[in-house]
């Protein structure tokens, strides 16, 4: 698993993918920071984090599109699947590599908190909870998009499908608000990654949301492993 | 040793491999021969654990591939038809990665990688990106990755396809060297390649095994025996006598510089009949004609003939 993680990290930073993800994320986050914090002379970092969370929807597919789909397209999966490495080990190695890039990016966003701390007041506990929820939400998007990459045949189709999936999750939130049938609205609300993030954005440490996010991540990874295994059995 | 027992593979309604059983003994170079679509790649993919068979058993050193997949995979190095290379890695970085995958002891990896690069002639391109290498070098890197971890069994799927003649010669030489230390199983549809390299050949046709034999066994099979003879007698006198022999089916005269010497290739019935085997009948005939035999030897069946016979029967 560690060797897979190392190779994927090399894959991110020996190609433009890692830099592209971090660069675009930070560029867009900086625009948001200017509009939300600097221009309005606000120190409300939680609202800013809430806005940044929409970047996962846009950019998570960049991190995950190559992970499994490219292996399949280039047939390099033959090396992995004929080596003494387990399928969960392969999937986890790849997932953790994507999460590492995500964490590095989030670490760089701490510059914004530093700027606010210089000119205003930052509540560190509130910020830590907000960032924790933000990271968990990002990890959940990465897990889902990795799963989609496992089903896709090419990196491009993986990216398009992952973006579609992320967009559907976002739409789910809006649909939940406008649906009049009670249990449907409740169900949509229950499964929404954005609704689950709301307590964190209010500075509340929600174990229910943590539990949901972790279950979501594990579920996606388990489905990915199962998808790869079933493809092996089909010989596809 | 690797062994397949009654292995079948279905892709939906299509049966790619049907009830296949064979083994590759230790220390041999074994060739898997078949036309395109004969099931060679499917067989190798099952054998290396890339995917499991629909039914049957794959055994590596007596261990079941499904039950002890990890241990089995440690014993096999595999070069698929398209080498599984990461273009953004250097040759050395890639081989290090494969060594880590194959669970080579961390401290031993640098030395092991250097050895493999030396064996495969990759030392001079060690720091180059795999994506920048020529096809021949990429194939060498593919073979090098199969050698990582020093597995006892090396499986190569059409290792010389798409290479230029010089590269083909180099890769074949590399395979010969590998055959001295490993059991090598490789697939090919090139008959001369199998003939040059293998001690044993397995012929597949439409996913079924139609022939399995040592290369030495292949000469001297079938109902036809071909003999080549050089006889000190004029063609005009000799030919009618040869054609009169009951076991002789066909006589082909070969050109010679001397009119008194006739060189012929005979196609005979291997059984010969009541008068003995074809060589005995020929000897007796020529003794009777007082025609000295300058040379007489049987011609082995070419692999091409064996292959055509096996696949037409199958």
Report the mean per-residue pLDDT of chain A as an integer.
Answer: 87
Gyration radius of chain A, in Å? 19 Å
Query: How far is it from the N-terminal to the C-terminal residue of chain A, by CA?
Result: 24 Å
- Give the count of helical stretches of chain A: 13
| Largest two-chain interface | A-B, 27 and 32 residues
Which regions of chain A contain 5 or more consecutive residues with pLDDT less than 50? none
- How much β-strand is present in the residues of chain A? under 5%
From the spread of the alpha carbons, the general shape of chain A counts as globular
Sum this structure up briefly.
Chain A has 236 residues and is mainly alpha-helical. Helices cover 83% and strands 0% of the residues of chain A. Chain A has one domain (2-234).
Description:
The complex is a heterodimer of chains A (236) and B (314). By secondary structure, chain A is mostly helical. Chain A has helices at residues 2-13, 16-38, 45-52, 54-64, 69-74, 77-81, 87-108, 110-119, 124-151, 155-178, 182-191, 193-201, 207-234. In chain A, 83% of the residues lie in helices and 0% in strands. With 314 residues, chain B is an alpha/beta fold. Chain B folds into 2 domains: 2-218, 3-Layer(aba) Sandwich (Rossmann fold), CATH 3.40.50; 224-304, 2-Layer Sandwich (Alpha-Beta Plaits), CATH 3.30.70.100. Helix content of chain B is 34%, strand content 29%. Chain B contains 11 helices and 14 strands. Chain B has helices spanning 40-47, 69-74, 91-101, 109-119, 135-147, 165-179, 191-197, 215-218, 235-244, 278-289, 303-313; strands spanning 2-11, 14-24, 29-33, 55-60, 63-64, 76-79, 153-157, 183-188, 200-205, 208-214, 224-231, 248-254, 262-269, 293-299. In chain B, a hairpin with a 2-residue loop joins strand 9 (200-205) and strand 10 (208-214). In chain B, helix 3 crosses helix 4 (109-119). The longest helix of chain B has 15 residues, at 165-179. The interface between A and B is medium-sized, with 27 and 32 residues.
